[in-house]
Design a protein that fits this description.
Distance between the termini of chain A: 27 Å
CATH topology of the largest domain in chain A: Rossmann fold
Order of helices and strands of chain A: HEHHEEHHHEHEHEEEHEEEHEEEE
Number of domains of chain A: 2
Shape of chain A: elongated
CATH class of the largest domain in chain A: Alpha Beta
Helix content of chain A: 25-40%
Number of strands of chain A: 15
Strand order of the largest sheet of chain A: 6-5-4-9-12-14-15
Oligomer: homodimer
CATH architecture of the largest domain in chain A: 3-Layer(aba) Sandwich
Strand content of chain A: 15-25%
Chain lengths: 254, 254
DNA sequence: ATTAAAATGATAGAATCTAACACACAAAGT
DNA sequence: ACTTTGTGTGTTAGATTCTATCATTTTAAT
């Protein structure tokens, strides 16, 4: 994408809508045909939808319920990899169980593809709850302060709620992992909640791609011993120390 | 909306996209101009976006997987009217206050357009919380069982949470109203929660269009005396009895 | 029955879109 | 150095679509 196309994309994001006549004034040095081609390019790449006389931003349409924030930008990175990991994890979900789904874009991928017949889903993430409400039999939303980066609810209210909830399987995510510090995140309250979930759940499945290995964040909520299964995409980064845990680490083909 | 327009709307929902030439084949008895007008109508009501040569469904983009749920079908009805009501209600929101936003599509319209500088928003609806998390300074999500029709959380967990929350202004919705039964909804837990909210809030603003007047549902959560302002679109349906309440009823132009 | 309002049809002209070809320029290969 | 290839761009002509307007029909209300 060249500078002109990037500018048009930004105009679209800001204004939600742009007319060819406006573009002609902004870019008088290029021909109308070129601007048309730019709009076609943006349409083919999913940034815009061409209308008669211009184009609108795809973000404009997303407003009804969609996610369109910092979170969403990260969520679309490596979406194929995340889907592969989520698909593997979905195979561990059994009918009629109580399933906790953590906040995080990989877990959100899983929420999109689970059927979970008769399952009760519990989640702290508002986007996950919204998605699950379409298909799932029963959905519990943990309450609390919403973190706009993770879309997760945490804090004393969430802690209080989980006291009364039994969890068969917890599908968790983390922002970093190292053998010394374990699984880490950057938010104190979310760390506290995750720690409590890991303790309560009968079975803990971690979804985390290899890019987060050997990165430590501020708060540790679990060590490798605390989880039962870890679904990831690559083992190459792992030091030989991990080899003893190989049986709990599931590697998905990429 | 007439039969033909309804059919086109369904075609759009199914196919995500429709060309005028296709419509001409489906409706050979009417002129092309009429079909163009139908598409314009659907566009003005938020169901479609016209393109060169046809139109696309607004659902096409925002729900990459899965079709629209029951909630969204209702949410798109009368969206202009709901926006008008929501805009009026937004003018009552003051900086830095604690604002409760109820579940409901009209209130969701308000969530889309509030700035609410420095406000803390509390809501039971997961879609509203998700939307607010983009823009608002602070968002609290009430926890509990998610109702897939209203996308609202309610139950003992939500009741427990609001005990510790102070509310300056509560923006409420209801499914029905009559002078005898007051404001009503069909779900026991949601009624219980709404009732508690109305009691706690210093100021209660009701958003409800006139189509719900003189319809009673199972559970009453407030009477006309309990609310401070009611924003609606029409007074014609009201019996003369209501006239004494005229000062608290705000009518928006349609 | 009369009137008003809404929906529809027909037409012309304006605006937009597409396709096709030509040109300029840079990168890569011979 | 020369050619080749590909990409980006400009120009034009013609096809398609859109809008505005007014005439006509249908529907609803009094």
């Amino acid at each position: 994408m060249n500078d002109r196309q990037t500018t048009i994309k930004k105009m679209l994001e800001a204004a939600k809508e742009v007319h060819l006549q406006q573009l002609r004034q902004v870019f008088p040095q290029v021909s109308e045909m070129t601007l048309r081609r730019d709009l076609s390019y943006l349409e083919n790449n999913g940034y815009a939808i061409r209308t008669h006389g211009g184009a609108i931003s795809t973000n404009k349409i997303n407003i009804p319920d969609g996610e369109e924030n910092e979170y969403e930008k990260r969520a679309n990175d490596n979406i194929l990899l995340k889907t592969a990991i989520a698909t593997k994890a979905a195979s561990y979900i059994e009918k009629g169980r109580s399933i906790y789904l953590d906040a995080g874009s990989t877990v959100m991928c899983l929420a999109r593809l689970v059927e979970g017949e008769g399952c009760t889903f519990i989640t702290s993430a508002v986007n996950t709850a919204l998605k699950l409400s379409n298909t799932a039999h029963s959905v519990m939303q943990l309450g609390g302060q919403v973190n706009k980066n993770t879309l997760s609810c945490s804090g004393p209210d969430a802690m209080e709620m989980i006291k009364h909830i039994n969890i068969d399987i917890a599908i968790m995510s983390a922002s970093g992992f190292s053998i010394d510090r374990g699984f880490t995140v950057s938010n104190r309250y979310e760390s506290q909640l995750k720690q409590a979930i890991v303790e309560k759940a009968k079975k803990v499945i971690m979804l985390m791609d290899s890019s987060k290995i050997d990165k430590d964040l501020t708060f540790t909520f679990a060590m490798l011993d605390d989880i039962d299964i870890w679904v990831t995409d690559e083992l190459d980064k792992l030091s030989p120390l991990y080899k003893s845990y190989i049986s709990k680490i599931q590697v998905v083909p990429t």
